[in-house]
Amino acid sequence: MPHVEGGMTVGLFGGSFNPPHEGHALVAETALRRLALDQLWWLVTPGNPLKNNSNLAPLSERIAMSEKIAPNPRIKVTAFEQALGQSYTARTLEIVRARNRDVRFVWVMGADNLKNFHRWQNWRKIVATFPIAVIDRPGSTLAYLSSPMARAFGYARIDEVDAQTLAFRRPPAWTFIHGPRSGLSSTALRATAPPRA
Q1: Which residues form the Cytidyltransferase-like domain (predicted)?
Q2: How far apart are alpha carbons 120 and 137 in whole angstroms?
Q3: What is the pLDDT of residues 59-86, one digit of tens each?
Q4: If we measure between CA atoms, which residue out of 166, 114, 158, 155 comes closest to residue 137?
């Protein structure tokens, strides 16, 4: 895990990043700014249990591409889930919290993930572990109203004008952050990429 000091606020932004693109970088930069984070950990996962991983680029390649697209020194690209030997977010967050008791974390995700968040293993446990910031993505703006997570935890949503307080709130707490959006998607980029050798 990247080095942190007690009292810091850190965003956790996970995904397969297959490939990473400017839309991911925009989510990361928006989170850093709007949540007033000291760091953002860009968590490149070994694989996604909800997706077909047969076309997944090698982890080392996805890490290198992520580092190139996110040069901000406050963004720490890491793949420590590989060392943990698992890829379920709920378990990863438990381990992160256990090893960093004096750090305030926020789970960061694009709104395109919110509509299927209820399919993640132990998703309610994730909501109860860390506050969550959902960053707007094209075509997903209304997900914060209609998704099962948003309906189940509507009472815990804070207004985005208070986003800088999110890391200091006891979970469940979440916000939806509007802002600049990129239409890029990893799925579309893979569809137009030449076949892998």
Answers
A1: 12-191
A2: 19
A3: 999 999 999 999 999 999 999 999 888 7
A4: 114
**What is the phi/psi pair of residue 100, to 5°?**
-140, 60
> Is 91 among the domain residues?
yes
Could you tell me which residues come within 8 angstroms of residue 154 by beta carbon, excluding any fewer than 6 positions away? none
Q: Can you give the residue range of the structural domain that contains 107?
A: 9-185
Helix (H, G, I), strand (E, B) or coil at 91: helix
**The CATH number of the domain where 148 resides is what?**
3.40.50.620
| Cβ neighbours, 10 Å, residue 5 | 10
- The reply to whether 55 falls in a domain is yes
Q: Give this prediction's pTM.
A: 0.88
- The answer as to whether 130 is a domain residue is yes
* pLDDT for the residue numbered 182: 47
The residue among 6, 15, 7 whose CA lies nearest residue 137 is 15
Domain count within the chain = 1
Contact in structure between 103 and 4 (CB atoms under 8 Å): yes
- So what's the pLDDT on residue 196? 52
Q: Tell me, yes or no, whether 197 lies in a domain.
A: no
